[in-house]
Design a protein that fits this description.
Layout: E1 2-6, H1 13-24, E2 28-30, H2 31-41, H3 44-54, H4 61-72, E3 81-84, H5 90-102, E4 109-114, H6 117-125, E5 127-130, E6 137-139, E7 158-159, H7 166-180, H8 182-188, E8 193-197, H9 202-214
Parallel strand pairs: 1-3, 1-4, 2-3, 4-8
Antiparallel strand pairs: 5-6, 5-7
């Protein structure tokens, strides 16, 4: 299956993408992974992306699209893929459609993870990260440390990252509503969108998504 996963920041896209890709035996292709792989490997596209990022500028659509195209042409993606973070806007969605059409392929579904905005803010703004090891994360409500403000693993101080502040989260949501959300209407016109309520346990959300895909 060829699937696009969309949803606001904090919807759990990365977590769901990993589970779904494993269940469907297809690669999980995320924009972040594409950037990191191309930059670390020193590809031409990676060099271009790094130059824009180092200058504090957004990476142009054509660079991101080029990376996605190269990844989707790898042997492990022959029988499908799950795209996470791409396409990010309607221009990228149109480019993806054109790319697939040239290869005689098409998308099977677009999964829209639906989470109320207040829940998104609560999920992200409630995160606390260990100063000693950023891999150790907690939540003021959903994953409380044993001792307030102290990492269970190493005893380090827990703090709220600047990009997890409520103000930053709401700005990220504005960007999502303006740039990414329009692709949902774009794909709805093709009859591809399946809306998945993304509240509740991770495994329950995965099962809802798998059930929806079985109906496609």
């Amino acid at each position: 299956m060829r699937i696009v996963l969309v949803g606001p920041p904090g919807a759990g896209k990365g977590t769901q993408a990993a589970f779904l890709a494993k269940n469907l035996s297809i690669p999980h292709i995320s924009t972040g992974d594409l950037f990191r792989a191309n930059i670390s490997q020193g590809t031409e596209l990676g060099k271009q992306a790094k130059a824009f990022m180092d200058a504090g500028n957004l990476v142009p659509d054509e660079v991101t699209i080029g990376m996605a195209k190269d990844r989707m042409e790898q042997p492990d993606a022959e029988n499908g893929f799950l795209l996470d973070g791409f396409p990010r806007n309607v221009a990228q969605a149109e480019a993806l459609d054109a790319m697939l059409e040239r290869e005689g392929m098409k998308l099977d579904a677009v999964l829209d993870l639906e989470v109320p905005e207040d829940e998104v803010v609560k999920r992200i703004a409630g995160r606390r990260t260990c100063r000693n090891d950023s891999a150790h994360t907690f939540h003021v409500e959903y994953k409380k440390p044993k001792a307030e403000g102290v990492c269970d693993s190493c005893g380090g101080e827990l703090y709220q990252r600047d990009d997890d502040s409520e103000e930053t989260v709401r700005k990220r949501l504005e960007v999502y509503h303006t740039q990414t959300e329009p692709i949902i209407d774009y794909y709805k016109s093709q009859g591809l969108v399946v809306t998945i309520p993304a509240l509740g346990k991770v495994e329950d959300v995965t099962e809802r998504a798998m059930g929806a895909l079985r109906g496609k």
